Amino acid sequence: MKKKLSIVIPAYNEEKNIAHLIAELSKSISSTGYDYELIFINDGSRDNTLQAIQQQADIYPHVYYIELSKNFGKDYALKAGIDAANGDAIITMDADLQHPPHLLPELLKNWEEGFDIIYTYRAESNRHASAYQRFASKLFYKIVNTLSDIKLENGISDFRLMDKRVVDELKQINEYEIFFRGMVKWVGFKQKGIPYTPAERHTGEASYSFFRLFKLAVGGIMAFSVRPLYIATGLGLFFSFAAILYIPYVLISYFGDYDKVSGWASLIATVAFFGGLQLLVLGIIGSYLGKIFMQTKQRPTYIIRSTNLQK
Questions:
Q1: Which CATH class is domain 4-208+300-307?
Q2: Which intervals hold domain Glycosyltransferase 2-like (predicted)?
C-alpha cells in the first residue's frame, strides 16, 4: 500500500501563486510514487485566494481547502491544517514558492532513512534577502536562542517534513500564541536540518515587518522559557544592593549640612531610571500573567468557516 503525504500550505493573499504552486508540487511529487493531498488554509485573505484554491480543487481531486473565519495568523493556520491532515508524513510549506518544491524528494529520502522531522533553514548565501532582512533575521534568532530554552538555527523555516507520530503529539497541543518553529524543536524525536536557498517570490511581497518579528520573538521566548523573569529578579537584586551602597552618601550629605539643592539633576535622573526599570519588570510579569489569563479562557485557536474536507 502506498504511503500518503499531506502537504499543509497556509495562504494569505496568495491568489496569483496558487495555480503555479500546485503545478510545481504535482511535478515534484509525481515521480516519488506517494499518494498525496494538498491542504490549503485560507487565513482570512483579502483578495481572491479562496476562489483560486476552489477553482483548483474543482480540477484536481487531491486539492483541499480550509477557510478560516478571519486572519488568525500563520501558526494557527498551520495548526488548522495539521489537525486536518491524516498522511503518513506531513509537510508544511509557504504558498509564495520561496520554499522550493524540488527539495521534496530529499525530505522524503531522509524520512525513509528513519528521521522523524526534517526541517530546513536558509543558507547564508540567500541572495534574495536584503541586508535589513538578513540583519533582522540574525537578531531575531540570537534573541530567541539567548533568552529561551530552545535553540533554533538562523533562518529556520516552516518548510519541514514530520512523521505522523510527531503530528499526533502536536495535535494534542492547544496553546495560546503557539510558536510552531519552537514547538517542533521542543517535541524532540529524531531530527535533521537541511540548508536551502529560498527562491524568489513568484508574486507579492514579504509581509513580516520589524514589529511582527519583534512580537514573534517575544512570543517565542515566553512560550519556552521563564528566563526573563529570572533576569527581572536579578535586576531587582542588583539595584537593591546598589541602593544600600548609596546610604552612606546620603548620611554624610545630611549630617555634613551640604547644600540640599545640589544634586537635583542626578536625583531626578535616578528616580526616572528606577521608575523605568520598575515599569519594565512589571511589564515582563504582566506579559506572563496575560498569557496565563488568555490560556485559561480555553478559546479555540482557530475557527473554520468552510472546507471541502470530508469529516
A1: alpha beta
A2: 6-170
* Euclidean distance between CA atoms 189 and 114, whole angstroms: 11
What are residue 73's DSSP bridge partners? none
Taking the mean position of all CA atoms in its chain, how far away is CA 232?
25
> Model confidence over 91-139: pLDDT tens digits?
998 888 888 888 888 889 899 888 999 988 887 655 555 565 666 667 7
HEC letters along the chain? CCCEEEEEEEECCCCCCHHHHHHHHHHHHHCCCCEEEEEEEECCCCCCHHHHHHHHHHHCCCEEEEEECCCCCHHHHHHHHHHHCCCCEEEECCCCCCCCHHHHHHHHHHHHCCCCEEEEEECCCCCCCCHHHHHHHHHHHHHHHHHCCCCCCCCEEEEEEEEHHHHHHHCCCCCCCCCHHHHHHHCCCCEEEEEECCCCCCCCCCCCCHHHHHHHHHHHHHHHCCHHHHHHHHHHHHHHHHHHHHHHHHHHHHHCCCCCCCCHHHHHHHHHHHHHHHHHHHHHHHHHHHHHHHHHCCCCCCCEEEECCCC
**pLDDT band at residue 261 using 50, 70 and 90 as cut-offs:** low
| CA pair distance 163, 165, nearest whole angstrom | 5
State how far the Cα of 270 lies from the Cα of 179, in Å rounded to an integer: 38
Residue that the C-alpha cell 496568495 belongs to: 14
Q: Return the domain boundaries, the chain.
A: 4-208+300-307, 227-296
- What is the tens place of the pLDDT at every residue in 239-248? 666 666 666 6
